[in-house]
Write the structure tokens for this entry.
Amino acid sequence: MTETYLAQAVSAADESGSYDTNAKFLLADKQILARILKYAVSEFQDMELKDIISCISEEIEVGTRPVDPGLSNLGRIMESNAEDNVPGEGRIYYDIRFSAWHKGMEMKFLINVEAQRSTDPGKLGYHLENRILYYLARMVSAQKQTEFFHSDFDSLKRVRSIWICMDCGKDGDSIEEIGLVRRAVFGGNGETEEIDLMKGIIIHVRKGENLEESRNILISMLEKLFSGMGAEEKKQVLTAKYGMVMTVELERRMRVMCNLSEGIFEEGIEKGIDQQLAKQIRIKIGKGKTVSQIAEELEETEERIETLMEKMGIKL
């Protein structure tokens, strides 16, 4: 029996590529994007998943080039250069960008999905909300001469920037919205009105194993998708519990991620985290902090702080 596109994406154990790259392509599968739209974007809540899948454009852009060819009507990107370039401002690369046509509203939505490993301003060097607003602003301004021309501002398309944040604690599963609200500050009737042109949506996914299942179906599905369980078990859960079809591509990507999470993810990503922690540890030691104080402020265990200090040749 020939495997479907989603099925082989979880299965090819010898594929090359990075954990982050495979995570982006995995999220770019139409079945997963449809569930993100249904359970995180209010305008799509009343639509059937099959109808949402059909309304997602074939041109799903991912910020890295496709590793291998092949298309399916359920999953697979067609274009890959998801960049936004403004002269004098440099380039930004979206993780995933696509459009969706809402048939009931007769309206086009421009969607951006980002996979975010950390929300800690201390690690990022900025507050995530500001970056989300920047992305939203770029998605709106980039529509001139593409979605509308001259001064036809009423033709602006609604934009949604969706951020899947994967660093929450065991009670942190939640979904938040950032948007614009019009309210009277003098005169008028004092009522507020939501302006739905642009919205940022933050999906907080918990890290760790043996978590109590989230009551939110989207978060529950994403946590299973990125959990440490084996590929075969993951395929069974996603199929039986969440009704997903195991296309060749989806299954291959999941298989690759399961392998990389034990190798490249631990060695490569963790090395980068260690370097950042080492820098923060030096700063805090210079301020006279103790190991316990450093561990508490950096939300790490004392054992890990001591291990890193030993590697750095630092003794208190």
User: Anything to note?
Assistant: The chain has a mean pLDDT of 78.
